[in-house]
Specification:
Layout lengths: L14 E8 L13 E8 L13 E5 L19 H10 L7 E5 L12 E2 L3 E2 H16 L9 E6 L1 H12 L6 E5 L5 H4 L1 H14 L4 H8 L10 H14 L20 H8 L3 H7 L1 H5 L3 E7 L6 H14 L5 E5 L10 H13 L2
Parallel strand pairs: 3-4, 3-7, 7-8, 8-9, 9-10
Antiparallel strand pairs: 1-2, 2-4, 5-6
């Protein structure tokens, strides 16, 4: 019998193609990270049987530290997202849709799916290369009305801001616990970084990175917060020459207001009013988060929702009883939501 406890016996009704894309915009990126990236494409059941049919597409992006092969990871007694997506489309609970899984990992942990002189042109990679790559090789309906994007955490951030910046490409998005309301999700951790830098690294992020790259990541309690603060600064507040500007003094914790303003300019809560026309053009918007999210991204989701209401944009907001982790079971809900919206005329 095929059950969730026998993953080795699961057969897909659709299929997952594992491809590689050689990026021009990531070539010679500042971190020296690979320009050749894996890209997976799920095609739904019936795709090969209807050679003249075209399909909507949803692009899926990962959270901080995510790399593409992690989509095959599973938690105890739970199918992974690839299996859940296949089950969704095989059951007919959602219209058949092509699902493209894009890798925007960096050696700092992530990219926030933005262009940055400190990390690379990951916004351009996602929008101008990955989308075109999939459209050229699969029978997508290659227009914004039939294209959406989905992600969680930092991927949820990318799913929110990418359609604001490129409404010519995307008309729907789903954000699970996406980074938003930066004073709630980021600012409280600055003090933790200051303390860890003082006690272990003589106030120096350079010393931290030298240490963490010489041992397994996560073997010190402060690894996560230090990595996160530096990575976000590299994405949000790097100078044109690649210099990373922190929004706080690493020795005193005093906020550097000019740099913090650069972060806030990239906060989805603050971006919504500036991109009102783009958001009003969306066909579907999904926001959700666990009510016990450790980074208070449920509070951020509500703040984004209120800004969307203020500009008259319809959307779905769901808060549920969970924290930040282990919420992969939520992804098929928003995938079905997007697939249904993108399949309508």
């Amino acid at each position: 019998m095929r059950t969730a406890t026998t993953p080795w016996s699961m057969e897909f009704a659709g299929r997952v193609d594992e491809l590689e894309i050689e990026s021009e915009v990531l070539r010679s990126n500042p971190l020296g990270d690979p320009a050749v990236r894996p890209l997976w494409v799920y095609v739904p059941p019936g795709y090969d049987d209807e050679p003249d049919r075209r399909f909507p597409a949803v692009f899926v992006i990962q959270g901080l530290t995510g790399q593409l092969d992690m989509w095959r990871n599973r938690e105890a007694f739970r199918p992974n997202f690839l299996e859940l997506a296949d089950r969704l489309f095989a059951s007919g609970e959602a219209p058949p849709t092509i699902v493209a899984f894009v890798d925007c990992w960096t050696s700092l942990g992530g990219s926030q799916f933005l262009n940055s002189p400190a990390t690379g042109r990951y916004h351009d990679y996602l929008c101008d290369e990955a989308v075109a790559f999939v459209d050229a090789r699969y029978r997508t309906e290659a227009r914004r009305e039939k294209r959406g994007i989905q992600g969680k955490s930092s991927g949820g951030y990318g799913a929110m801001v990418t359609p604001m910046l490129r409404p010519d490409l995307f008309s729907a998005f789903a954000s699970h616990a996406g980074d938003a309301l930066f004073e709630a999700c980021y600012l409280p951790e600055f003090r933790e970084s200051v303390r860890a830098l003082r006690d272990d690294y003589d106030g120096s992020f350079e010393t931290f990175w030298a240490d963490v790259r010489a041992r397994p990541f996560g073997t010190k309690q402060s690894d996560g917060v230090l990595m996160n603060d530096w990575c976000m600064a590299a994405c949000y507040s790097a100078d044109e020459d690649g210099t990373v500007r922190l929004p706080f003094d690493p020795r005193t914790g005093i906020l550097v207001e000019e740099v913090w303003r650069r972060w806030l300019e990239k906060d989805p809560v603050r971006m919504v009013p500036r991109h009102a026309d783009a958001l009003r053009s969306m066909r579907a918007i999904w926001l959700d988060a666990g009510k016990k999210d450790e980074w208070y991204l449920d509070v951020g989701a509500v703040a984004v929702s209120e800004e969307l209401k203020a500009i008259g944009v319809e959307h779905t907001l769901e808060l549920f009883d969970a924290g930040h982790m282990s919420i992969g079971y939520r992804y098929p809900r928003s995938l079905a939501f997007l697939a249904t919206a993108l399949s309508s005329d």
